[in-house]
Write a structure and sequence with these properties.
This protein has one domain (5-159): Nucleoside Triphosphate Pyrophosphohydrolase. The protein is built from 4 helices and 9 strands, in the order ββββαββαβαβαβ. The longest helix is centred in the middle third of the chain and has 13 residues, at 51-63. It has helices at residues 51-63, 111-116, 125-130, 141-149, and strands spanning 5-16, 22-28, 36-39, 42-44, 69-83, 86-98, 117-123, 136-137, 158-159. With 162 residues, it is α/β, with parallel strands linked by helices. Strand 5 and strand 6 (86-98) form a beta hairpin. It has a 5-stranded mixed β-sheet with strand order 4-1-6-5-9. The mean pLDDT is 94.
C-alpha cells in the first residue's frame, strides 16, 4: 500500500555566536526517544510567509533569539522523513545568522515542539567533527559549516544533502 507524501517547505538558520559556535537543538525522532538528531533551528513556512520571515520567526519562537541578524541564504536541502505516521518531503533553505547573545529562551515553543525538542547546545566546529556517534542534519554539517565560520559565503546556495 502506498502512503501519501506531504510536501513541506521550511526555513532553517545556521546561527553563529561571537565564538563561531553553531546553535543546534536535539530532536527526538520517534516516541521511544531511541533516535535523536541535532538540527538547526527552523521549521515550516506559515501561509503567505517568505523563507526569510519564517527563519526570523523560528529564531524567536524556538530559541528566543530576537536580535540575531539574518544574513544570506547559504544552503539548500531536500529530504524525506516520517513523523507521527505521516511521510514528509521537505525542501529547506538555510540562512546564515549571527548573534551577540548565547542565551536560549524556549518559552515560545509550540506544544508539539516541547514534546520533541530535548535540548540545545552551542557547538564548536571541532566538537562536531569529533562527535562520531552523534547524528546531525545535514549529516555533513561540519564540511559545509567550516567555510561559513571562515566568512566564505557561497555565491549560490549549496546543496548540503541529507
Amino acid at each position: 500500500m502506498s502512503q501519501k507524501v506531504v510536501d513541506r517547505v521550511a526555513a532553517r538558520v545556521v546561527l553563529l555566536d561571537p565564538q563561531d559556535r553553531i546553535l543546534l537543538q536535539l530532536i527526538r525522532l520517534d516516541e521511544r526517544e531511541a533516535r535523536t538528531v541535532w538540527i538547526t533551528p527552523g521549521g515550516a513556512l506559515a501561509p503567505g510567509e517568505t523563507h526569510r520571515q519564517a527563519a526570523l520567526r523560528e529564531l524567536r519562537e524556538e530559541v528566543g533569539q530576537v536580535t540575531a541578524v539574518l544574513g544570506p541564504w547559504v544552503w539548500v536541502r531536500e529530504h524525506q522523513f516520517e513523523f507521527r505516521g505521516t511521510t514528509y518531503r521537505q525542501r529547506e533553505r538555510f540562512f546564515l545568522a549571527r548573534t551577540e547573545s548565547s542565551a536560549i529562551d524556549t518559552s515560545r515553543l509550540e506544544p508539539i515542539e516541547v514534546d520533541i525538542v530535548l535540548g540545545h547546545r552551542w557547538w564548536r566546529l571541532n566538537e562536531i567533527e569529533g562527535a562520531r556517534e552523534t547524528v546531525f542534519a545535514p549529516r555533513l554539517i561540519s564540511q559545509f559549516l567550516a567555510p561559513l565560520i571562515e566568512r566564505r559565503i557561497p555565491e549560490r546556495p549549496i546543496d548540503v544533502g541529507i
